[in-house]
Amino acid sequence: MSTPPPFADLLPFLQGVPIFGGVPDAHLETLWRHADWLTFEADDVLVREGEPARALYVVVEGAIVVRKGETTLSALGPGDCVGEMALIDIQPRSADLVAMTDVKVMALGIADLLRLQTSSLETYAIVVLNLARELSRRLRLANRALVAAGLPTVE
Which residue, 132, 136, 137, 120, is CA-closest to 31? Predict the structure, then answer.
């Protein structure tokens, strides 16, 4: 684990992360304080498909690719999050996450989300709704890709 950037320096970044949209600054600070701050070098595997899912990651610096086997599903950069399904369905990882460059991430686990639920149900609801919006956005993108490939879709 690494030391997080000072909260005051990171606040504008956190305010721009879609899953934190509408979250009061005081609750962002709580999430910042309790998050794990991880660093990876280029080509490091952050998680492997099939591993237990314990956290979502917000990319703070660098770039990550999401891979299923040899297929790259997406590339993510600062402000993007990945692993939301870990906090929703608590199933094993569905893909590998690999650092394309040196990467710094903010990792939020299930316990962090539950802590938010007990401290502010309203803020918890905002974060969960933002997670649902992000998952819905990704499903729409996946459906467009399936249509473009001539395959059936599910919505």
Answer: 120
Residue 45 and residue 97 in contact, taking contact as beta carbons nearer than 8 Å: yes
Residue-range domain boundaries for the chain: 7-148
For 1, 10, 38, 59, 109, the CA distances from 41, given in Å and listed in that order, are 13, 21, 10, 13, 22
Tokens 């690999």 sit at which residue? 98
Question: Which DSSP symbol is given to 146?
Answer: H
Q: Is the pLDDT of residue 154 over 70?
A: no
pTM score, two decimals? 0.89
Which of 53, 13, 54 lies closest to 32 in space, CA to CA?
13
What are the structure tokens assigned to 30, written together?
């709580």
User: Which amino acid is located at 28 in the chain?
Assistant: L
Q: What is the pLDDT of residue 152?
A: 75
Confidence band for 143, pLDDT divided at 50, 70 and 90: confident
Residue 18 has pLDDT above 80, yes or no: yes
The 3-class secondary structure across 75-95, one letter per residue, is: EECCCCEECHHHHHCCCCCCC
7-148, CATH topology level: Jelly Rolls (2.60.120)
